[in-house]
Amino acid sequence: MQPARRPGGRTARVRTAVHEAVLELLREEEWDDVSIAQVAERSGVHQATIYRRWGTLSGLIDDVVYERLSQGSPVPDTGTLRGDIEAYALQVAEDVSGPLAALLMRAGMVGSRGPEGETFLINRGVQLQAMLDRAAARGEQPPTLLELMEVIIAPLYYHAIFFNRPAGPDHARSLVDRLLSLRGSSG
Questions:
Q1: Do 106 and 170 contact (CB within 8 A), yes or no?
Q2: Which residues of the chain have pLDDT under 70?
Q3: What integer pLDDT is reported at residue 83 of this predicted model?
Q4: End-to-end CA distance of the chain
Q5: pLDDT at 31
Q6: Distance, CA of 27 to CA of 48 (rounded, Å)
Q7: Contact predicate 151/178, CB 8 Å
Q8: φ/ψ (deg, to 5) at 99
Q9: CB 91 within 8 Å of CB 152
């Protein structure tokens, strides 16, 4: 039988302390220069606890990234297809241009192959599909999830990764316009 987890209990405090330490260290040092020993010292959490919980530094960083994306970038529900897609596109544009963008990109590319990354991507796909399904239930004509990814999300990441110049809010809005015009929707 699994022990009961206490929301807000010791486990949550440990996770918060370790996540904060990782983020602080990554603001100060290069990714390759950060170690579990540094995280343990900065967080006040024993190294053994960190290894037991996350296994590796990559596993820990993946957890930090997916937590930040899950909590910091919720899928919107504005009541309209255009509003939902635009709010999500603007959030993605902000995420890939913010102070932790390089971390999110690198962890997303490296970590998305692990179980935490796969779980995050599956959950995000389910959330986005629910957003599109809500629009269909309102009588709107939403794009497919693949179209949303190809026309809006992929270009925003592409700009940040290959141009090293994230697209801004105006570009994000123009991608929304492009997607909705392809679908014959005005949202």
A1: no
A2: 1-8, 72, 98-120, 185-187
A3: 97
A4: 49
A5: 75
A6: 24
A7: yes
A8: -65, -25
A9: no
pLDDT given for residue 3 in this prediction: 47
DSSP H or E stretch at residue 8:
none
81-95 and 154-162 are packed helices; what angle lies between their axes, rounded to 10 degrees?
A: 20
Q: Choose among 35, 100, 29, 145: nearest CA to 108.
A: 100
pTM over 0.85: no
Q: Which residues contact 123 (CB under 8 A, 6 or more apart)?
A: 70
Domains, the chain, with CATH or none: 10-55 (1.10.10.60), 66-183 (1.10.357.10)
Whose CA is closest to 116, among 125, 105, 107? 107
How many other CB atoms are found less than 10 A from the CB of residue 42?
Answer: 17
